[in-house]
Write a structure and sequence with these properties.
heterodimer; A: alpha/beta; two-stranded parallel sheet; 15 helices; 8% strand; B: Rossmann fold; Zinc Finger, Delta Prime, domain 3; 7-stranded mixed beta sheet; 52% helix; binds adenosine-5'-triphosphate; binds magnesium ion
């Protein structure tokens, strides 16, 4: 066994597009930025959308394509949540970066090199409101010589005055079709074999997140060799097996609380993520023919509440148990209200 | 050395439980481009053991030569400088730490210390550029901010730094982090697997096990390997040769919670609530985590309740545990649960028996 000494990048990085035109599925922003490459005109930008849809990729690609490797360091400042971005940093770091003058806009080494600097604020939704407010002034003061790229998952966490200064682009979850194309491309490069079923499974379990799809693909390739089946992909994806979800519902239908409790204990001991369990429950319940609309409503309402509690950090066992109790009451038409509460 | 440490398997090939996962992990690191890993699963299921064996697989026996360092880091937090104390375990190629130990300052650990570690590429003795692994424990306890701070670091330095994250509850790890890792679920071993581990330890210690004895311990372990091995060792101290009727004692604090449960079943009054408060404090000052107390209390109560009450009581347990997360002082919320229980139980008694 040779110890690992050097390493190459994981596939997600290896297959990160280097050019804006290679970013898949985000046509609008690609069109605008392709235009920028020709005219060098660029507004402030705000990219938002779910994980793994190409936001960081796009911002880095345009910055590289505008300035090339030589000027990149002096013209592009990338600040992300791994940097402290409190008010002080915004005031000092960004200012000192923005304040150094840039030369006139001359093409250099085949790159457009427009006469401004780019500041990429990745994961901007984790900046405090105070820090964002401090940025307003900075943006205005240096608006001639800087362009800001804000990137975030949740646009609602960006304060309005910042958002309204930017051209906004929503990054959509990748469609199954596009996902398939990208995956097939990687399979070709890596010499992998996926049948149609496996391909469609991979697209559906990754839910529009290409990074996730690539990670699953690489893991499955390492574990199961170059021929990968749909089952292999499910086993690396952390999806809860359908039998487990079914068993849970059957226990709830039985009306026997101890049985339901046992299933809940089993889910926890097997280590299935409860948040995942909730979303799969939702799917099954919504599609079930033998559950009335009223029952569905009762169940789903609780699923939403429990999900919120989990996000707040509540205990997985207790939340799932509460969901189990509620589902049982709905399915067995027991009263919604508790009898002894006062 | 305690048996849990003494008999912790050291290599992926020597592992008793989770053999299948171990073999998979071995395949995963055959190439040098494996993704970041997130290990999750219930306490005592064997996550740490697998991670350590995996490191050994990657780096050979040097991975076991760890030194413990207690260092105070000076971190520049804008207007002031913070001193953050941190214990790390490290070998030539890996560093293990527990960033959530810094409490509300965990963000600085991720932003300053972890990033620094990820950035610096190790150079091995032959002058070749090295490869490094950071093991971060209890990532589910990291604040949101700290988790956000980890995202870009995971991408930026991934050419030579891999993260191995470890936690109990992956629901508490943000989507963005999960999306950056291969998620490895470590389920609690089955009772049969636990029996196998216990029998192996018994053999190595040269002990005679009456038939069914290991199974009895496994059954009481709630599928936690650690717990099973600990109580096996306790049994050994208490009485040897073993008999199949030997009592597998539960832990002191569990007995204590059982007492609280019968206290509140017997009497529902402000006076009793006051007495129970004292007992709850006793548990808390002994560092039993509040949610564990609440869950155990629920477990004891469920044993004694009528079916129709179970729904209601479980609901309130979940409700007050959630509140406890949002609040500051755990005692308030556990006590609120006890009071709620008393009130429900009392009206139930009145309705049933007049
Ligand atoms: N639209 C896309 N076209 C091509 N590849 C993509 C696209 N979106 C994601 N990828 C792949 O997924 C990886 C992650 O993408 P990226 O870092 O851009 O995601 P992100 O939108 O910034 O996500 P997050 O919100 O989690 O930071 C890339 O390295 C690339 O391999
Ligand atoms: N695969 C295994 N085969 C045999 N024994 C094991 C195995 N995994 C773990 N053990 C034993 O169980 C004990 C507990 O395991 P470990 O410390 O790995 O649990 P953990 O999952 O990290 O728990 P926690 O989440 O509570 O930290 C170990 O000390 C070891 O003795
Ligand atoms: Mg990103
Ligand atoms: Mg551990």
């Amino acid at each position: 066994m040779a110890p690992l000494l050097q390493s190459s990048q994981p596939w997600v990085e290896k297959y990160r597009p280097k050019q804006v035109k290679d970013v898949a599925h985000q046509d609008e922003v690609v069109r605008v930025l392709t235009n920028t490459l020709e005219t060098t005109n660029c507004p402030h930008m705000l990219f938002y959308g779910p994980p793994g849809t190409g936001k960081t990729t796009t911002a880095l690609a345009i910055a590289h394509q505008l300035f090339g490797p030589e000027l990149y360091k002096s013209r592009v400042l990338e600040l992300n949540a791994s940097d402290d971005r409190g008010i002080n940093v915004v005031r000092t770091k960004i200012k000192s970066f923005a304040a150094v003058a840039v030369g006139s806009g001359q093409r250099q080494g085949g790159y457009p090199c427009p006469p401004y600097k780019i500041i990429i604020l990745d994961e901007a939704d984790s900046m405090t409101e105070d820090a964002q407010n401090a940025l307003r002034r900075t943006m205005e003061t240096y608006s001639k010589v800087t362009r800001f790229f804000f990137i975030c998952n949740y646009i609602s966490r960006i304060i309005e005055p910042l958002a309204s200064r930017c051209a906004k682009f929503r990054f959509k979850p990748l469609s199954e079709e596009i996902m398939t194309t990208r995956i097939l491309h990687i399979c070709n490069e890596e010499g992998l074999n996926l049948d149609a079923e496996a391909l469609s499974t991979l697209s559906s379990i990754s839910q529009g997140d290409l990074r996730r799809a690539i990670t699953y693909l690489q893991s499955a390739a390492r574990l199961f060799g170059s021929s990968i089946s749909s089952k292999d992909l499910i086993s690396v994806s952390g999806v809860v097996p359908q039998e487990v979800v079914e068993a849970f519902l059957i226990a709830c239908k039985s009306g026997d609380f101890d049985l339901a409790n046992k299933e809940v204990n089993n889910v926890i001991a097997e280590g299935y993520p409860v948040s995942q369990m909730l979303s799969q429950l939702l799917e099954v319940v919504v599609e079930a023919d033998d559950i009335s609309d009223e029952q569905k409503a009762r169940i789903c309402k609780k699923l939403g509440e429990a999900d919120k509690c989990l996000v707040d950090g509540a205990d997985e066992y207790l939340q799932l148990l509460d969901v189990a109790g509620n589902t049982m009451r709905a399915l067995c038409n027991m009263p919604q209200e508790f009898s002894y509460e006062c | 050395m305690l048996w849990v440490d003494k008999y912790r398997p050291k290599t992926l090939d020597n592992i008793t439980a989770h053999q299948h996962i171990a073999q998979n992990l071995k395949k995963l690191v055959t190439e040098q481009d494996c993704p970041h890993l997130l290990f999750y699963g219930p306490p005592g299921s064997g996550k740490k053991t697998l991670i350590m064996a995996l490191l050994r697989q990657m780096f050979g026996p040097t991975a076991e030569k760890v030194k413990v360092e207690n260092k105070t880091w000076k971190v520049d937090a804008g207007s002031r400088t913070l001193d953050i104390e941190l214990t790390t375990l490290s070998s030539t190629n890996h560093v293990e730490l527990n960033p959530s130990d810094a409490g509300f300052q965990d963000r600085y650990i991720v932003q300053e210390i972890i990033k620094e570690m990820a950035k610096n590429r190790p150079i091995d003795t032959k002058g070749k550029k090295g490869f490094k692994v950071l093991v971060l424990n209890e990532v589910d306890k990291l604040s949101r901010e700290a988790q956000h701070s980890l995202r870009r670091t995971m991408e930026k330095y991934s050419a030579y730094c891999r993260l191995i994250l470890c936690c109990n509850s992956s629901s508490k790890v943000t989507e963005a982090i999960r999306s950056r890792c291969l998620n490895v679920r470590i389920n609690a071993p089955t009772e049969e697997e636990i029996v196998k581990v216990l029998e192996l330890i018994g053999k190595k210690e040269g002990l005679q096990l009456p038939s069914g004895f290991a199974a009895l311990i496994a059954e009481k372990s709630n599928r936690s390997l650690r717990r099973a091995i600990l109580s096996f060792e306790t049994c050994r101290v208490q009485q040897y040769p073993f008999t199949s009727k030997q009592v597998i004692s539960s832990m002191d604090w569990e007995e204590y919670v059982a007492e609280i449960a019968s206290d509140i079943m017997k009497e529902q009054s402000p006076k009793r609530l006051f007495q129970v408060r004292g007992k709850l404090y006793e548990l808390l000052v002994n560092c039993i985590p509040p949610e564990i107390i609440l869950k155990r209390l629920l477990y004891e109560l469920l044993k004694k309740l009528d079916a129709e009450l179970k729904h209601e009581v479980c609901h309130w347990a979940a409700y007050y545990e959630h509140r406890m997360r949002l609040g500051q002082k755990a005692i308030f919320h556990i006590e609120a649960f006890v009071a709620k229980f008393m009130s429900i139980y009392k009206s139930f008694l009145i309705a049933t028996f007049g």
